[in-house]
Amino acid sequence: MNKATLRAVGYRRVSMREQVDGFSLDAQENNIRQYVESQGWEFVDLYTDAGISAKKDSHRPSLERLIKDAESHRFDVIVVDKVDRFYRHLRGLLGALDQLNNWNIAFVSVQERLDFTTVWGKLTLTVLGTLAEIYIDNLRQETRKGKLQRARDGNWNGNIPYGYCRGLCSACKEPNGEGYCPDFGKPDKSNGKRLVVHPVESLVVRLVYDWYLSNLESDGHIAKRLMGYRLT
Question: Are 68 and 9 spatial neighbours (Cβ–Cβ below 8 Å)?
């Protein structure tokens, strides 16, 4: 990629609080334009998300348009004033940078002096990617350990399994509570941190196991049978 012929675009963003605190859009634009000019690149567009957070899963229309334009190769390099204007969480940042790299779109952060159009910049990107993989692997291991410990302590992981409930009968807000559960409104059976057997749905679970263990019912037959089954 010949740096002298790069088509550059800028991306700037502020939240409402940051605009008040002085991280203005104008200041970001000035820094971006000055950097592009110093490199002898052609400045072709500026993308702006004003009053929008960079938190995970936040909706940023201009960033989404920027990514689409990058895929269409409407420019060669994206320039931001600071990395956190682009993404604040590492996983999202690295995912976006990897995507841009696959499209041969470079990335520059003025304040951090990160220029992925250079050899050293590309090395930095590789190191960041490796660190992210280590972080994600470690997080996955810690999550697995945490779930295993919860199981050892008699707790559950994820959604409450069918046939059980929290046992908070006196103030139950579950859809399988009022008008359905005979224990609704009665004294609590648990503090909410331990699951208890649901008096109605547990019967269904027992029926399913009994039918399955009889060797006379397949999974499909049991499912069809349950659709028309009523507990009396």
Answer: no
Contact (Cβ atoms closer than 8 angstroms) between residue 75 and residue 7: yes
Asked whether the beta carbons of 35 and 108 are under 8 A apart, the reply is yes
Mean pLDDT of the chain: 82
CA distance 194 to 172: 15
Q: Are 39 and 74 in contact (CB under 8 A)?
A: no
Q: Which residue has the tokens 């224990």?
A: 183
pTM for this entry: 0.54
Look up tokens 């634009």; give the residue. Answer: 29
- In whole angstroms, what separates CA 220 from the centre of its chain? 35
DSSP state of 142: H
Looking at the chain, the domain(s) classified CATH 3.40.50.1390 span 3-133
Q: What is the DSSP letter of 186?
A: S
Residue 85: closest CA among 46, 44, 40, 127: 46
147-183 pLDDT, tens digit each: 788 777 767 777 888 888 888 899 888 877 788 888 9
* Residues 40/75, Cβ–Cβ less than 8 Å: no
CATH number 1.10.150.120 given to 3-133: no
Task: State the Cα–Cα distance between residues 195 and 147, nearest whole angstrom.
Answer: 16
